[in-house]
Amino acid sequence: MKTEYVDLHLHSTCSDGYLSPEEVVALAEEVGLLAIALADHDNIDGVSRAMQAGAASGIEVVAAVELSSQWLEYSDMHLLGYGFDYQDPYLIRALVEFQEFRATRNRQIVELVNQKLIDEQRQPIDPDAVRQLAGGTIGRPHIALALRQAGYVSNNEEAFTRYLVPCNVPKHYFPADEAVKLIHGSGGIVVLAHPPYVTRDRHRLEILVAGLVELGLDGIEAYNNGSGLEDTDWLVKLARRHSLVVTGGSDFHGDSGSMIEVGKGVRGIRVPYSCVEEIRAALLKRHPRAI
User: Model confidence over 42-87: pLDDT tens digits?
Assistant: First the structure.
């Protein structure tokens, strides 16, 4: 029987992606995916647009978001929310406040990058041009693209090494317990995103997952760009040990030159439709009268 594939971790111009929600859905249709989730960073502005585009093209779209969080010594741990009410006023208010801080941060980064360019006797990049490149919320990849287009760097890696890392402004994070409450409060489930990027020490990861389960963690993104086949198998077993759902996605942003495609991540990872069924079952278990 032919395996049906999905991609439950995609980004658009509503956070730091390069394509609109509609363009992301069009690519998903082009490669024959059955379902997707637009999981923009700390932003759900594109969810409704993706759902409308998905309805028109026959692709199931799961409401999603990727929250920047922290817990204990883990200062940039991402948690994915799935299946929540994207019209929930409390969720919207919390994310708007977060986006306002993020917008201020990125303006400060542009100012610092421009000061470095001036010190190098180069023409500063235009903040308005960066906003136009983003088409939504400005992210550091958009600043990197502006630096590439100006001819100051040849690729994103150089942009980060020479400018964005030295000119970084600390991010703001949701404490993990608050992130879990926020998603659960709006009817969704919470999944730990790309665990190898949190820590590659399996013993530490086991301890972290156990602690997050106590907070209400519902799943693990076992299919991710940081995992090979053996890593994915280990993560699936870790999830089953805690009765957690298994999800996966490409973490597609749409930047040129990337090996990541919609529906296919690094090393060609593919995500089976069973992950959507697991999400649906977890949502039903959490809110049996709501589905």
Answer: 999 999 999 999 999 999 999 999 999 999 999 889 999 999 999 9
Q: What is the largest CA-CA distance in the chain?
A: 63
CB atoms near residue 148 (< 10 Å): 18
CB 61 within 8 A of CB 52: no
The candidate with the shortest Cα–Cα distance to 39, out of 291, 227, 271, is: 271
Helix axes 127-134, 89-119, angle to 10 degrees: 140
Q: pLDDT, tens digit, for every residue of 144-156?
A: 999 999 999 999 8
Could you tell me the two tokens for 151?
């001819």
The token pair that represents 65 in the structure block:
């978001």
Domains of the chain: 5-95+179-286 (3.20.20.140), 96-164 (1.10.150)
d(CA 239, CA 195): 11
Percent of the chain surpassing pLDDT 90: 80
Burial class (CB in 10 A: 0-12, 13-18, 19+), 40: buried
Residue of 76, 126, 131, 124 lying closest to 103 (CA atoms): 131
Beta bridge partners of residue 38, listed in sequence order: 10, 63
**Whether pLDDT at 233 is above 80:** yes
- Residue for token digits 């949701």? 174
Quote the distance between the C-alpha of residue 175 and its chain's center. Answer: 17
Q: Where are the beta strands (DSSP E) in the chain?
A: 5-10, 35-38, 60-71, 74-82, 174-175, 189-192, 219-223, 245-248, 271-272
pLDDT higher at 114 or 106: 114
